[in-house]
Amino acid sequence: MLPKLGIIAGGGDLPTRLVEACRAAGREIFVLGLEGHAERDNPALPVDLWSRLGAGGAMLDALRRAEVRDIVLAGRVRRPSLLELKPDWYATRLFARIGARALGDDGLLRAVTTELEKEGFRVVASQDVLRDLLTPTGHLGAHGPDEQAEVDIARGIDVIRALGGLDVGQAVIVQQGLVLGVEAVEGTDALIDRCATLRRDGPGGVLVKISKPGQDTRFDLPTIGKATIERCAAAGLRGIALESGKSITLDREAVIATADARGMFVVGLDVSS
């Protein structure tokens, strides 16, 4: 029998999908919703406890009381300022230990994961619970990138590799060789909206999302869903390129159907070389 899973839930559909998968498998869960990140009005997300992000000690105590053994970090989490975070004694001590590693998302998540494992928990990947999450290689749907889009994708991959080494972001939008925007703290949705105001005449741009160099695949993999397709279409983009095997496509059938209806391409690429 699988051990009880603690789902530390941020925003988006991924936490809900994990809940559904665990229920189908008969696996016990404990959902810890992060205030200001997970959706309180989502009836499909059965939150057992709401907690602010800085309440590290209280969250650990709750997970232990619930007899959780495995933990998955799932969903979008907007990086708060230290003032917003209001760290408790445990979080303050953690930040003092990790120092500069807290400056980047990947560095912070690695440090948090290490601390959870020191506390006796096992941190697992979302894709270990939901086996069909990872983006496959090839075209997802009827459309594929043309020559200009291929050039834009290659440009985007180079940019993310360069900035990803600095733990900056996982997404970039390129149009006709021009970098319209790079994802930072604002997240992919805000990046898409911002670049909608910067688009040039001619063939639309491409959203490229790949993991950072050396990224721990247990958390924060680049993710898209049906809403991403709709947002990109509204912004005048003509396609999305993802790293196959290291990105998540939620509700793949809905993503494909929406992309086909919008005349957009979605492609999974092996960018390991």
| The CATH fourth-level homologous superfamily of the largest domain | LpxI C-terminal catalytic domain
Q: Beta fraction of the residues?
A: 15-25%
The end-to-end span amounts to 39 Å
Strands of the widest sheet, in order across it, are: 6-13-11-9-7-8
Order of helices and strands: EHEEHEHHHEHEHEEHEEHEEHE
- Counted up, domains total 2
Put simply, the count of helices is 10
- Our Rg estimate from Cα atoms comes to 19 Å
Structural class: alpha/beta
Largest sheet: 6 strands, mixed
Model regions low in confidence, pLDDT < 50 over at least 5 residues: none
Q: Which CATH class of the largest domain is shown?
A: Alpha Beta
CATH fold name of the largest domain: Cytidine Deaminase, domain 2
User: What is the helix content?
Assistant: 25-40%
Overall pLDDT level: 88
CATH-derived architecture of the largest domain? 3-Layer(aba) Sandwich
Strand tally, please?
13
Protein name: UDP-2,3-diacylglucosamine pyrophosphatase
Pfam families: LpxI_C, LpxI_N
Organism: Skermanella stibiiresistens SB22
InterPro entries: LpxI, LpxI_C, LpxI_C_sf, LpxI_N
